[in-house]
Amino acid sequence: MQHFTKNLLEWFAQSHRPLPWKETKDAYLIWLSEIILQQTRVEQGLPYFERFRAAYPRVQQLADAPEDEVMRMWEGLGYYSRARNLHFTAKHIAYDLKGKFPDTYEGIRALKGVGDYTAAAIASFAYDLPYAVLDGNVYRVLSRYFGEATPIDTTAGKKIFRRLADDMLDTKNPARYNQAIMDFGATHCKPKQPLCATCLLKNDCKAFAENTVGTLPVKSKKLKKITRYFHYLIINEGENVWLKKRGAGDIWHKLYDFPLIEDQATRTLEELKKTSEWMDFFHHKNILIQKISRPFLQVLTHRKIIAVFIEIKIKENFEGEQYGFVQAPRTTLDDYAFPRILNDYLKDDVLELF
Ligand code: SF4
After folding, report:
1. Are 208 and 256 in the same domain?
2. Residue whose CA lies nearest to ligand 1 atom number 2
3. What radius of gyration do the chain's Cα atoms show?
4. Are both 182 and 74 inside the same structural domain?
5. ∠ CA 309-313-317 to the nearest 5 degrees?
6. DSSP three-state, residue 176
7. What's the average model confidence in pLDDT over 288-308?
8. CA of 195 to the centre of ligand 1 (A)
9. 256 and 131 both lie in a single domain
């Protein structure tokens, strides 16, 4: 066994975190936890895992759940395509695969929403198959320990790190090894302020010896965030409000939001009134602007959303169906899955009167 692997497993024996999905060999529950934990911290994902496991202990129950209910359960976790894939895949397993979770790496990898990393994690945790995980945590640990400065987002880098990851794997106990390196990256060799002083691996860690811990791993491109400006129109008709289920090809697919005017910057009410959308919605209609909110912010991976919310009372029939809107009593908004920024607004009672 490699020196690195031996020390890593020693660290794991002393430090590992007890988590519910580590105590099971049930591939469905392991898959569920892995999908929840994609791009989510363990502390944030844990209550979601518990809630899904309680509501849907078997894949069949998740497959048969209404889609809106699954989206609602997922609300707050972000990256909603994961929830849609989760539901889609549950149905695929329950019906096409007759309830049998795939038990080969290739079979698992073929599931929608499952990439190389998640397939390796499920294959090793559920079936003890010898596949090494390679995610952000693993890239960081390996690049620091081996002083490997090839950018991790290049073809050359991916090849080098894939080989390193495979070479380090404890093929006799891949589940324990994979869990160890993931935990080590998440809690010890952290992105910021890694615990080098107390690290069992520091005597052989190249980055520690060469004082390059803070510069590794290297990425060739940095993501540039685009800002989008939303103006939400909360059209109140009697006790009801108009909502829209978001479509494919944009953020928040299948979540609900309000009718929306998007522009290149946050506009004043007077500017908004001149937009074609506003004129289309409200031309010759008797409306009353009740409130306009402060700007709210939500930061996503590739973009920033700045949204203002305009409360509008409409005194005649709005006929929102022609735009694909649906009407809901204002008191039932808790039943809909919204993007976080809408919940932030709905919970915020510090509104400015316009
Ligand atoms: S010494 Fe520091 S950088 Fe090296 S493996 Fe340990 S925690 Fe990571």
Report:
1. no
2. 196
3. 25
4. yes
5. 120
6. helix
7. 92
8. 7
9. no
- Peptide bond before residue 217 is cis, with ω within 30 degrees of 0: yes
User: Can you give the pLDDT at residue 351?
Assistant: 43
Q: What letter would DSSP give residue 200? A: T
pTM of the predicted model, to two decimals? Answer: 0.71
Ligand 1: residues within 6 Å at CB?
A: 144-145, 188-189, 194-196, 199, 201-202, 205, 207-208, 213
User: How remote is the CA of residue 30 from the centroid of ligand 1, in Å?
Assistant: 28
Whether 11 and 107 share a structural domain: yes
Most confident among 31-35, 214-218, 271-275 (mean pLDDT): 31-35
Same domain, 152 and 276: no
The two tokens of residue 189 are: 């060799």
Pocket test residue of 10, 145, 212, 216 for ligand 1, highest count of atoms within 8 A of CB: 145
189 Cα: distance to centroid of ligand 1 (angstroms): 5
User: What is the tally of structural domains in the chain?
Assistant: 2
Q: Average pLDDT, stretch 223-251? A: 90
* 353 is a domain residue: no
Is the residue at 221 inside a domain?
no
CATH number for the domain harbouring residue 326: 3.90.79.10
Q: What is the pLDDT of residue 166?
A: 96
Residue with structure tokens 């979540």?
255
Active site residues: 34
Residue 272 lies in a domain: yes
Per-residue pLDDT band for 354 (boundaries 50, 70, 90) equals very low
Expressed as residue numbers, the domain containing 33 is 3-215
Name the residue of 137, 182, 183, 188 to mutate for ligand 1: max ligand atoms within 8 A of Cβ: 188
Q: pLDDT-derived band of residue 350, with 50, 70 and 90 as boundaries?
A: very low
Backbone angles phi, psi at 310, to 5 degrees: -115, 115
- Supply the residue whose CA is at minimum distance from atom 4 of ligand 1: 205
Q: Has residue 124 been placed in a domain?
A: yes
Angle between helices 42-55 and 27-37 (to 10 degrees): 140
